[in-house]
From TrEMBL:
PANTHER family: DIPEPTIDE TRANSPORT SYSTEM PERMEASE PROTEIN DPPB-RELATED (PTHR43163). The keyword Hydrolase does not apply. The complex is composed of two ATP-binding proteins (NikD and NikE), two transmembrane proteins (NikB and NikC) and a solute-binding protein (NikA). It comes from Gottfriedia luciferensis. This is Nickel import system permease protein NikB. It is found in: Cell membrane. SUPFAM superfamilies: MetI-like (SSF161098). Belongs to the binding-protein-dependent transport system permease family. OppBC subfamily.
Length: 313
């Protein structure tokens, strides 16, 4: 296990190094001049040149990247071109909202997906199975921004029982819980559908195994067979889907934060891209990429606790 963690941490470093270079390059290749955006329409050539000099944009691409990488390795993500605020500070302020939204969406997805998948497997080819299949297909197909708008229209505008935007309270408070309900449903629906389909397929495979038939032949209660023997062994592929989806949810909060006016990292990233604020975009992308890889590492470690037969040697 220790060797696995060390290998993955080394891979994490190389992966983040590659991601940082690609993001840095793509931002510099994108059309638009940060100096022109900062200076405004009245800025002269001398003003623009002075802005570029102060931001280090007159240096060559590789010199700029080296300065950026050196700062990152020392824990310095740089300063925003627009606000002059520390990138790390700006992200740390908004990250709790993004993490809260991702966790709440994952909880919604796991609860709905796992329960629906298990019920569909146990009631195979019944009306419940067919209904869950149709709902899962709809959940994957419907864009989360469209679903978010519909939820706002129904529960926020027409029924007026839930807030339509913002997240300015912790989600464990009553107000924060109300604010997170609609965005977490909008963001977690597609993941719930994928988890439901994987849970159904995995459970169907397990309940047809020889040891399940043996347990039934010995007179073990059906509830014990399902929730003790079958569920644990069917969870490994489901956990893979959950882990990958949690990483995607962290990145997928961008659109949901815009729809529900949540002050998170995704919204910060969109504003930074529009303003060609290179350090802010690079810091936000690096954070999301790091979390994605860390989640996958935790999933690999969790496999061993679920099924001790798995070995990474």
């Amino acid at each position: 296990m220790a060797s696995l963690i060390l290998r993955r941490l080394f891979q994490l470093f190389l992966l983040l190094l590659g991601i940082s270079f690609l993001v840095f390059a793509s931002m510099h290749l994108a059309p638009g001049d940060p100096a022109a955006i900062i200076g405004g329409p009245t800025a002269t050539k001398a003003d623009l040149n002075a802005i570029r000099e102060s931001l280090g944009l007159n240096d060559s691409f590789f010199v700029q990247y080296w300065h950026y990488l050196s700062g990152v390795l020392h824990g310095d993500l740089g300063y925003s071109f627009q606000t002059k605020q520390s990138v790390a500070e700006a992200i740390s302020i908004r990250f709790p909202n993004t993490l809260s939204l991702a966790i709440a969406s994952m909880v919604v997805a796991v609860i709905i997906g796992v329960i629906t998948g298990i019920v569909s497997a146990l009631k195979q080819n019944s009306w419940m199975d067919v209904s869950s299949t149709i709902i899962a297909l709809a959940g994957i197909s419907v864009p989360n921004f469209w679903l978010g708008a519909i939820l706002i229209l129904i529960f926020g505008v027409n029924l007026q029982i839930l807030p339509v935007g913002g997240l300015d309270s912790p989600i464990w408070t009553v107000e924060g819980f109300k604010q997170i309900i609609l965005p977490s449903i909008a963001l977690g629906t597609a993941s719930a559908a994928m988890i439901a389909r994987m849970s159904r397929s995995s459970m169907l495979e397990v309940i047809r195994a020889d040891y399940i038939r043996t347990a039934r032949a010995k007179g073990v209660k059906e509830k014990s067979i399902v929730w003790i023997h079958a569920l644990k062994n069917s969870m490994i592929p489901v956990i893979t889907v959950i882990g990958l989806n949690f990483g995607f949810l962290l990145g997928g909060t961008i659109i949901t934060e815009q729809v529900f006016a949540i002050n998170g990292v995704g919204r910060l990233m969109i504003d930074a891209i529009a303003a060609r604020d290179f350090p802010m975009v690079q810091g936000a992308v690096l954070l999301v990429a790091s979390l994605f890889v860390i989640v996958n590492l935790l999933v690999d470690i969790l496999y061993v606790f679920i099924d001790p037969r798995i070995s990474y040697d």
